[in-house]
Amino acid sequence: MIHGLKAREFDRLSREALGDDIQRGAIGKATDLIRGRRGAAVARLPEWEELRERARAVKAHTLARLDHYLLQFVERAEAAGVVVHWASDATDATEIITGLVAEAGERPIVKAKSMVTEEIGLNHALEARGLRPVETDLGEWIQQLAGEPPSHIIVPAIHKTQAQIARLFAEQLGSAEDASAEELTAIARRILRQEFADAAIGISGVNFAVAETGSFLLLENEGNIRLTTSLPRLHLAVMGIEKLVPRLSDLEVFLRLLPRSGTGQHLTSYQSIFTGPAPGRGAAPRRGRGGGPGGAPPPARRHRRRALVGDELRRSSLQCIRCGACLNVCPVYRQIGGHAYGWVYPGPIGAVLTPQLAGIHEAKALPLASSLGGACEEGCPVKIALPEVLRDLGREAGEAQGEAPGGEGFGCGRWAWFMRTPRRYRWALRLARLGFPLGKRLGPFRRWAEQRELPRPAARSFRDQWKERSR
Amino acid sequence: MSARDSILSRIRDGLRGVEAPPLPAPDPVPGGPGELAAFRALAESVGVEFHDTLASALGDARSVAVSDAPEVAAAVDRLAAADGGAGGRSFFDGWSDRAALLEADAGITTAQYGVAETGTLLLIGDDERHRLVSLLPPLHVALLRRDRILPTLGAALAALRREDPAAMSRVTTFVTGPSRTADIELQLVLGVHGPRALRVVLTDPPAAANP
């Protein structure tokens, strides 16, 4: 049982999302902005392609020797004083964490943004025990106030307008209905400062873990991760096993790629590198089992990561560094937003990870939610072959549905889906115009298109021209 | 079977017969110092202000937290002597008085290094108790020696690395500009959780002792 998994309802969820003009407007505007900033940042770095190739190679090597690097990381982290817990699945992970929280006296909990804790449904598990974990990243806190999961990996409330957030704060916190972004942020700072001051336990994720030193790195802009990992006496870091790199020096390439890919910054405001528990945490033993201060990262392996390890193509999905770049360039994501994907990871990487981690039967429609454009692969800083993995998963989905193996059923199924309503048809035309130059080379139609000269879609559709002339 | 053993054995089953592609050789780390002008330009591009004196960097801050670095204490002493007093400011040990730190107007620390490639300050936690002093007050003033500029992030990582992981600093923080968010319609707002302003005062290396 996977908490919050609704990927089976993709059809309904995406249909509903297409009807939400405010959300579509907010996402379109925001993703355009991030894409522009990313493009400018990448253009200033002539060695961009070399960096991508290096990052891919480091990750591919590490994943192919994952057992070795995982053991090395754990040994060195333990030598530095970290208490490591191993969790073999989501239930295991939440039980370990709730156990550590109980041991620490069920004191107030602050949380830094972490995708893996979303994966394991940690907040839900803590709330089921009557605890109240407080998300402290501004976007995550907005989503927590709204009672919704995040809808984007980097910008959790990307689908909301400022006016909607101001109304949410007004309802929940009694602030002005027309508060500015500056005022809303000040309100969040004031309330969350008190939460930080009271907190006894801080829970974070891990962006990168270094096998040779047992260190781990966290990146952020707001400072909430620094607060979460410094004010409370106990720091619990939840880490997926795919986060490893072999050497400290390997962090350089990822520090250069991740911020530029995620937000277009040359570096985010803060990176924290932890090697063992932080100094100056009073008299408690540094190595007490979970009770000691400082980092205790349980390598929380979620669901079926192990199953991905064996196959080279599938294994590349684990290279993901959670930058969100593939979401921002995906014409499907731009139209339907994050929640329609029905689980933690939206966009192309969601369509790749959800069926693999949750099982293809839970997410048969996701591999079809692709424009075939290939923009996601070009935007991916670690060169995950997203369209190829999607095609592979699409075949598996087709087989699971009883179709003969092979591309056609998959392609026609997709076509039928697009043709089912006028809105989808219009959308498909728009996608065709955007994705045409690449769709010929990539995507399941490639083999078919190789033999043919495809008609170029008209720059403006007949529908659009008709509408304009009849005005 | 323990969770550890079952996880490892399943990974090994999955990877049986898999030939690992080679790990790329590390990029050579540039030797020598980084350029101060480049450091400054990159830092200014993300909103860092450079001040010639501590008094100017502190502005109208009244309650000022300090880290335990001797350089900070010396700078505060010089400020007090020059002003003929502290200019109405009060200074206190930020790392020992958390309640006061939460109310302070400013925090003064040093930075162990600057990084020219990105305009980043390196705060090495084992060298100085500056973690919270640099984070909780709305203004962070960092003293940085002009001769402590590293060229690249790679050089910064090399400076942190120790053969024995237990000898690495337990926490190191890279700071590039003030705290920021863009979570509401991508509008930039400074000071969401950490300092709203980051000001750097460049200092000279101590004069070499006479032989």
Shape of chain A: globular
Q: Please report the first level of CATH classification, the CATH class of the largest domain in chain A.
A: Alpha Beta
Oligomer: heterodimer
Largest sheet of chain B: 6 strands, parallel
Query: End-to-end span of chain B in angstroms?
Result: 66 Å
Question: How many structural domains of chain A?
Answer: 2
Largest interface: A-B, 93 and 70 residues
Structure explained in plain terms:
The complex is a heterodimer of chains A (471) and B (211). Helix content of chain A is 51%, strand content 7%. Chain A is built from 23 helices and nine strands. Chain A has a five-stranded parallel beta sheet. In chain A, strands 7-4-5-8 form a four-stranded mixed beta sheet. Chain A is globular, with a radius of gyration of 23 Å. Chain A starts with 9 loop residues before the first helix and ends with a helix. Residues 281-303, 405-413 and 443-453 of chain A have low confidence and may be disordered. Chain B has 211 residues and is α/β, with parallel strands linked by helices. Chain B has a single domain, classed as NagB/RpiA/CoA transferase-like (Rossmann fold, 3-Layer(aba) Sandwich), CATH 3.40.50. Chain B is 27% helix and 23% strand. Chains A and B meet through α2, α3, α4, α8 and α10 of A and α1, α6, β9 and β10 of B. β8 of chain A pairs antiparallel with β9 of chain B, so a sheet runs across the interface.
Give the topology, please.
The complex is a heterodimer of chains A (471) and B (211).
Chain A: H1 10-18, H2 21-43, H3 48-64, H4 66-79, H5 90-103, E1 109-111, H6 115-119, H7 122-128, E2 134-135, H8 138-146, H9 162-173, H10 181-198, E3 201-204, E4 208-210, E5 215-220, H11 224-230, E6 234-237, E7 244-245, H12 251-262, E8 270-274, E9 294-295, H13 305-309, H14 312-315, H15 325-328, H16 331-336, H17 347-358, H18 375-379, H19 386-400, H20 407-419, H21 422-439, H22 446-450, H23 462-469
Helix pairs in contact in A: 3-12, 17-19
Chain B: H1 3-15, H2 36-45, E1 49-51, H3 54-58, E2 63-66, H4 70-83, E3 90-93, H5 98-103, E4 106-110, E5 113-115, E6 120-124, E7 139-145, E8 149-150, H6 153-160, E9 171-175, E10 180-181, E11 189-190, E12 197-203
Parallel strand pairs in B: 1-12, 2-3, 2-4, 4-7, 5-8, 7-12
Antiparallel strand pairs in B: 5-6, 6-9, 10-11
